[in-house]
Amino acid sequence: MSTMTINGRTASLPDDPDALLIDVVRDAQGLTGTKLVCGAGVCGACTVLVDGEPVVSCLMPARHAADKSITTIEGIGAEKLHPVQKAFMAHDALQCGFCTPGFIVEAVAFCDRWRATKGTAAPSREEIGAALSGHLCRCGAYDGIFRAVAAACSGQFDGDNFASPRVEARAKVTGSAKYTVDIHHDGQLEGVILRSQWAHARIAEIDLAPARAMADVGAAISLLGDDRMVRFVGQPIAAVAAKDRKTALAAIAAITIKSERLPSVIGLDAARKPGAPVVFDKANRKKAGNVSEGAGGPAAWNGNVRGPSAAFSQKPKKVRSWVSEARAANNPLLVEEIFRTGTQSHACLEPHATVARFDGDALTVHASTQNVFHVMELLAKRYKLAHDKIRVIADHVGGGFGSKGALGIETTAAIDLAREAKAPVRIAYDRHEELAVSGYRPAAEIKIALLPSAQGGLKALSLTAHADTGAATNSTLAALARLIYPAEAKELVDFDVISNLPPGAPFRGPGGPPMAFALEQAIDEAAIRMKVDPIDLRKRWDPYPNRQRLYDWAASLDVWRNAKSAAPQSSRYRRGVGVATGYWLYLWQPGSKVDLAVVGGRLVASCATQDIGQGSRTVIANTVAREFGLEPHEIEVRIGASDLPEGPGAGGSRSTASMIPPALLAVQKLKAAIEQNAKRKPVKGSNAPWRELLAASPDLRVSAVRPEDDKPTSPGVRSPLKEAGFMGVIFGWMLRRFSNLAVGAGVPSSVQVIEVEVDTWLGHVRVLNIHTGIAVGKIAAPALAHSQAAGSVIQGLGYALYEARETDPRTGDILTAGMEDYRIPGIADIPEIDVHFDEGGFDHVLGGSVGIGEVATVPTSPALANAIRNATGIRLTEIPIRPDRLIAALKGRTAA
Ligand code: FES
Q1: N or C: which end of the chain has fewer CB within 10 A?
Q2: How far is the CA of 398 from the centre of ligand 1 (A)?
C-alpha cells in the first residue's frame, strides 16, 4: 500500500483507482477545511499544497499523491498563524468563509514565493489577480483579499499585533469552522436523490425494491407527491441512503420507474402562448414554489400566467390614456422600451445540505440554512414533534443569498431516510444539483413607459413585468416601483409565467435588480431627452431625503464631474460613466429575541439566528461590547441553533434590524440587574466600570424581544406601505400575518456611479471603478458592512455582464450545470469599489441600523448599462451584456 505525508504525518492511500485526493483528505483523514465545490478545478476551494505547490485536489487522483508531501489548510499556521491568515483576518477578506481555505493555501504559496524573490515590495493588484485567478468567491470578498495579500506580501503581518473585525475569522482562516457538509457522525450514511429526467410526466409505477435489496443500502424512499406528477427536469422522485455515495448512486440507478410523458412547455415566451400545455391545473396550484421572501396574495390564473398579483397602481387608466396620447403625438419625451433580464443562479459555494440524526425520539438536524428557528418550527409541524425534540444547527453556512430560507427537500429526505435506516444520513447536493434545482432569480421581461410632463415633472409611469418563474409563483418586480419617483399616475403590473422549469427562489432583493434595470435606464433615457443631468433629474423626481443626500454625494464625485465635460468619442475604446439608484424595503422579524447573560463573569449573548457570511455574530458582539465598553471578542455569541431564543432568518436584509433592538434592550436590562447586585456587593477598590462589575457579578440572565419602532421623526421618512394606500396596508398585514415579517418606515437606499471602458471591436466591457453610496442607517460593523456592500455590487456585476442560467428549450434540462459554464465574477474582474455610508434616516429604529445586503445589489446592472450608453450612445436592453449582444447593438446603430 502506498503512502503520503499529510501535514507532517504519514497516511496510507486507497487502492481504489477512482479515489481523488480530496476524498482522502476530507473523508479518510477528516481534514474538512479543504472544501469541495465545483469538482471541476475551476473554483479553487479544494486547493492543497503538494510538495509546496498549489494543486486542486478535486482533480488529482489520490494515487498520484504517493510519496508526496501534502499540506492542507489545517497544516498552515497550525502552531503560528501565517502572515496571510493574519492579513485575511485583519482586512476581513472573507464572509461566509467557504472559499477561504482555498484562497489562503494559494495565497500562502504566492506570498512565500514573492517574499523569497521580492522581499517586502507590495505586489500590484494585477499580480494578485493573476495569482488568485483560479479561485472564486461567491460572497465577493475580493476587495479584502486584494488588500490582505498585498499587506502580507509587504510584511505588514509578520508580527502578532493585529485585530480582526469579524469575531469568527480565526476559525475560517484555519479551516476549523464546521459547515453542514463537514458533519460526520458514527455510522452515517450518504443520501442521494433520484431526479426526473422529464420536464413533465406522471409516474405510474416506482419500484424501490431493487435498491433496498442491494448490499450496504440502508433506506430507499419515494419522494413523489400525492398527484405522482413531475413538472420539471430534476424534480425529486426517490432517495436512497447507503454506506457511501458510490453505492447510493448505484442504488438509485437500480430503481425502476414507469412513467407517462406529458406535453411540456419551457420558458416565458412559450408558456404564455395561447394553447400552451398547462403546468398546474386548478387543483394543484398550491404545489407551485415561491420566488419571494413573503407569502403571496391571491391572483387570477390564465393558463400558465398568474396575475396581476397586487394592485399597487395609482390611476392606471390615466396612465394608459396619457401614454397613448403622447404616442399619437410623437412626444419625444415619452420613453417606451422592453427590457429583458437573464436568469441568475445563487451558486452558493456550500451546496444545500442536511445531516439528520435520531436519538430515540429526538431529532438533530444540521442544515445549511438561512433560518434555523423557522426550519425547526416547520419540521415540528411536519413530523408532529415538540419543539424541544428537534434541534436545527447551522454553525457556519457557506452562503445562501435567499436560496436557503425555506425547508428544502434535502432536509426532509435526509430525515425520512434516517428514520427508515435507523442511522444518521447526510444529503449534500453535487454541483450539478446545486445549479440545476436549488433556485434562481427568474428572468423577466419588463415593458416600461415613462412620460415626463411639459413642466419637467414625472407625469406617468407604467411597468408591466412578466417573470419566468418556472414551477413557482409570487414574483414582485413592477410593484417595487412604488418605493420611488412619485408620479401623477402609475400603472404597476406583475405577472408570473409558469413553465416546466425548476422553481425560481428568492434571490438577494427579489424583483429589485430586474425592475431597476428597466426603470433606472428609463430615467437615464428621460434625462438625455430632457437634456438634464441624470443625477439632477433624480434629485428633482425623487424627494426622499436619504437619497437626496446620496445624490449630492454622487454628484460631487470626480468621476461624475469629469464625465460631464468629456468630449464625444469615436475610437475603439470608449469610456463612459453611469448612475443608478437602488431601493428596498426595510424588513424586520417580529418576535426576535436576544438573551444576554453573565456566566462566570463573561457576557454571553444568545439568539437562534445564523451567520451566512453577513456577520450576525459580529453585529451582536459589537452591539453588546460597545454598550459595556468591552472588545467584541470578549463577548461570547451563541447563534446557529434552534434551541436558543427565537431569532430572525437571514433573508430580506432583516437580520441586523431584528437583532440590534432586542440586544440593546437586553443590555439595558442586564445593566440594571448587575447594578442592583453590585449595590449589594460593591466591587472593592474599583470605580465600577463595567469590566469590573461583570467580573464581580453573579451569574445573571435577561431576555428581550424586538420592540416596535418609534414614529419616525426625520422629515420625509414615512412608511412606504402607508404611502401606497389601502393595498399597501393590506400587503403589510399579510406579510406580517403569514410570513412574520414587518415592513418598517423608511426605504433603505443606494446610489451607484460606475465607469466603464467599452471595446467597440470585441464587445468587451471593462469596469474601471465603482462608487456605491448606501443609506441604511448606522453601521454596526463597518469592515463587514463594507465587505457585504462590495460583495453585493460584485453579484450585481455578474448579473449585468456574465451570469445566465441556460436551459435546453426542448427538454428543459440545464445547460450551465457546472461552474465552468455558469460564469460568476472572478477576482481579476473586480475594480476598486468605493463604499460610502450615509448613516442618517433610521433614528426611529432602536440602534438606528437596517440591513445592507439587498439594496447594494439593486442598482448595479442599470448603472453599468447607463455607463455603456454614455460611452457608446447604445442602450442595452438585455442582460447579461455579452460581447455578442453589445456588438450586435453597435452594428445595429451603425446600420441605422
Ligand atoms: Fe468566499 Fe463566501 S467568503 S464564498
Answers
A1: C
A2: 7
